[in-house]
Model the fold of this input.
Amino acid sequence: MKIVDATLEQDVTFANEMEKVRADFPVLKLEVNGKPLIYLDSAASSQMPQPVIDRLVYYQTSQHANVHRGVHYLSETATSEYEGARQKVQHFVNAREDREIIFTSGTTDAINLVMHGYGRKFIKADDEIILTTLEHHSNIVPWQMLAQETGAKIRVVPVNDAGELLVDEYEKFFNQRTKFVGLIHVSNALGTINPVKKMIALAHMHGVPVLVDGAQAAPHMKIDVQDLDCDFYVFSAHKLCGPTGVGMLYGKASLLESMQPFKGGGEMIATVTFEKTTYNTIPHKFEAGTPPIAAAIGFGAAIDYLLTIGIDEIHAYEMELLHYATELINELSGVHVIGTAASKTSVLSFVVDGIHPHDIGTLLNQEGIAVRTGHHCAQPLMQRFKIPATSRASFAFYNNRSEVEAFIAGIYSVQKFFSR
Ligand code: PMP
Done:
């Protein structure tokens, strides 16, 4: 196997800057099976840098109390930090107002909130919901549950062999019965970046609201919900260097106000009697109970951290890694990249002739290399490509070219192992 050297123009200074970033991630000093960890599973969950860890420790040691309920120092501090985190998320996605940001437990929770809050109120029998073949299960199953309950129908936008959505087909789906569109911004399984702005505009021509699943977009590119004009946008903190257990739902204020609450309990109410409850204003109407305070503050710290590096810089660097890895993997015979869209993030899904993805993952792990194998919570997409699973390497800004080379050499060794 030939390792192609620097076929792409690389800005050395830029790469050196990104190399320094690695020192922020304590986990990258880990050894796995006696080898330095090479973490290529950031699309499943990214690693956490020291400033975010420090922020969590500081909160727990000096600022923790329940929010919105106390008049004492710690409660007021926790409340202002928690609400400050909401404003950081608001600016990160360029939402008009901070009340348009709801803290959820993650992407899945946010989609379920919209399904219950919007879907169960406004979608009825024979209405149609448009989804795409690229969706993650979390943007399929809630809508299927709604369809079962109401008698609504789901229509699915197909993809071509490169893993790109057929937007012409999508356009033809709209009719009087179309009531909702659920659209993945970036495919977690293939990396395809979808033309969501155009697809949102098409839906709006028919008066149909659109939810965008941005779980794989927010860590890699600038998100501007006003520019996209999406009605809902969702993602999780743990994929952008933040903690697990928190994510966000952006919703246009008028839509959020029109929706019914998802969960009932403390905080989401204005008044309660045994006869009747009136609800709090947004965003609190959708944040019943004690929220993930520490995690939300960590989410804010993760946003601060990413912004000090620069989202455009992250994107450009990750693209270089992707192109380098794609070029190298294409040198290997018997290895096939699944997902060759013209517009992609740093996800490289592949299958190897005669070797099960699970075996690839297991053998790479022996070399300290972490990749994901399986259906990536996108079984309909795997069915479309007539494969049960892929192996997937996902590159983050804290990876580098020598890790890419080790990964490619690892696949080559796996092939050698199986050809003995
Ligand atoms: N959508 C996409 C595109 C994802 O990649 C994921 C996580 N794999 C999810 C939704 C679900 O995110 P979470 O598990 O954090 O709710």
Remarks:
- The first strand starts at residue 31 and ends at 32.
- Residues 73-93 form the longest helix (21 residues).
